[in-house]
Specification:
The chain is an alpha/beta fold. It has one domain (2-124, 155-244): P-loop containing nucleotide triphosphate hydrolases (Rossmann fold, 3-Layer(aba) Sandwich), CATH 3.40.50. The chain is built from eleven helices and eight strands. It has a six-stranded mixed beta sheet, sandwiched between helices. It has a two-stranded antiparallel ribbon with strand order 6-7.
Length: 300
C-alpha cells in the first residue's frame, strides 16, 4: 500500500529518503536497471547520488567543510540545495538518510522550493532494528541499535565516509518528517508492500518521479527480475559491495519481512512499539510486529 501526495511539477531534486536499512539501496538498483534497460545490474555502479556527499559542496563552499560545526553544515546544505535546484535533473534521485526536520531558523533541511519529488521508503522498525544492528556490526547487541532508533537527537556525526553529518533522529520522527513534507510530489512505499508486489510499487514511484509518463511494462518486469534479492546477494558474495561497512559481514543479508522474530526479545519489541508508536500507527505497523491496513492512505 502506498501514500501519494501530488502538487504541480517544478524543477528541483528528487529525494530518495529512508531510515537506514529500509530498502533505499534496493530501490536504487531498480531505478538503475529500469533507466538503462538492464538485464543485470552492477551493485557497485548504482545510480542515485548521496544528498550529504562532500563532493556536492566542494565547488560552493569558501572553506574546508571539516571546519564547520554540524549546525553550519546543515545550513550550508540547505543553501546549496536551493542554489542547485534549478539545474537538477529529476532522473537521478539523491539518496538521503536524514530526517527532514526544521533547522534552528525553522526552515526544513530539504526545502520544498528545491524539491521536484520525494520517494520515501519505510520498513517495520522491528525488522529495521535487526538489519541495522547487523549493518553497523552491533549484532547480537540489538539493544544498542534500539537505543539509537529511539533517540530523537541521534546523528551521524563528523565528516565521515566523504559525507557531511546527518540528523537521523528517532525512527518515528524521521518517518513523520517525510510523511508530512508539504507541497511536493511524494510517495511513501512500505518495504513489505514492495516485497509483496515489487512491480506495482515501483511503477507508482515512477509515476510520481515522471508525472504524465506511463512506465514501460516490459522494462518494469525486467528491472524487477534483475534486482531479485538472491541475485544481489550472490553478486556481493562474488565481487563484494563497496557500500558495505567494514564491520558488516554482508550488506544483502536477509531481505525478508518478519525476521525480527528470530532476534528480538518481547521487552525489546515493547520498547520500540512504545517509543515509536506515532509513526507506526500512522503507516499500519502493529505492536505485535504485523503489518496491517494503512488508515492514512485513503484512496492510495
Amino acid at each position: 500500500m502506498t501514500d501519494v501526495v501530488r502538487s504541480p511539477g517544478h524543477g528541483g531534486f528528487t529525494w530518495l529518503a529512508s531510515y537506514p536499512k529500509s530498502g533505499n539501496t534496493w530501490f536504487r538498483a531498480l531505478m538503475t536497471a529500469y533507466d538503462a534497460n538492464l538485464e543485470e545490474v552492477d551493485i557497485n555502479r548504482l545510480g542515485a547520488r548521496h544528498g550529504a556527499a562532500e563532493h556536492l559542496f566542494e565547488s560552493f563552499m569558501a572553506c574546508d567543510g571539516s571546519l564547520l560545526t554540524e549546525e553550519e553544515t546543515f545550513i550550508a546544505r540547505r543553501a546549496i540545495y536551493l542554489h542547485l535546484a534549478g539545474t537538477e535533473s529529476t532522473s537521478a534521485p539523491r539518496k538521503v538518510h536524514d530526517a527532514n526536520l526544521p533547522l534552528a531558523g525553522g526552515e526544513l533541511l530539504f526545502p520544498v522550493e528545491a524539491t521536484a519529488a520525494v520517494i520515501h521508503i519505510v520498513r517495520h522498525p522491528f525488522d529495521v532494528a535487526v538489519s541495522y544492528a547487523y549493518h553497523m556490526g552491533l549484532a547480537p547487541d540489538f539493544g544498542a541499535c534500539i537505543d539509537r532508533m529511539c533517540d530523537p537527537d541521534y546523528r551521524i556525526g563528523e565528516l565521515a565516509n566523504s559525507q557531511f553529518p546527518q540528523v537521523q533522529s528517532d525512527w518515528s520522527s524521521h518517518t513523520l518528517s517525510w510523511l508530512d513534507m508539504p507541497c511536493a510530489n511524494r510517495i511513501t512505499l512500505r518495504y513489505e508492500d514492495m516485497l509483496a508486489d515489487t512491480e506495482t510499487s515501483f511503477a507508482r514511484a515512477l509515476r510520481v518521479m515522471f508525472p504524465g509518463v506511463e512506465p514501460d511494462p516490459a522494462r518494469l518486469r525486467q528491472a524487477v527480475e534483475a534486482t531479485r534479492f538472491d541475485k544481489l546477494k550472490a553478486q556481493e558474495a562474488a565481487a563484494s559491495f563497496r557500500e558495505r561497512p567494514e564491520k558488516s559481514e554482508a550488506f544483502f543479508r536477509s531481505g525478508k519481512a518478519g525476521s525480527w522474530q528470530d532476534h528480538l526479545t518481547p521487552a525489546q519489541c515493547a520498547r520500540l512499539a512504545e517509543a515509536l508508536a506515532p509513526a507506526m500507527q500512522r503507516v499500519g505497523y502493529n505492536a505485535d510486529g504485523s503489518v496491517g491496513p494503512w488508515a492514512g492512505s485513503a484512496g492510495a
